[in-house]
Design goal:
mainly beta, globular, two-stranded antiparallel sheet, 66 residues
Length: 66
């Protein structure tokens, strides 16, 4: 009788330089409605992350003009 290993893995979140900066479990990805390849845009004020917005895979985020 063989056992099937319960494999736990994470999905890396990489910055624009390709460095892993965060990792989610598949369950967290599902709860956040994220898929591999989505873009996460972080909103940072005073060196603190105060929120984020996601863009689905293949969607180019709009240019911001302030």
């Amino acid at each position: 009788m063989s056992k099937i290993a319960n494999i736990r893995y994470t999905v890396p979140v990489k910055n624009m330089d390709g460095e892993t900066v965060l990792e989610f479990t598949p369950e967290q990805m599902s709860r956040l409605n994220l898929k591999c390849g989505d873009t996460i845009e972080w909103k940072v004020e005073d060196d603190k992350v105060i929120g984020f917005k996601t863009y689905p895979t293949g969607i180019i985020k709009p240019n911001e003009t302030d």
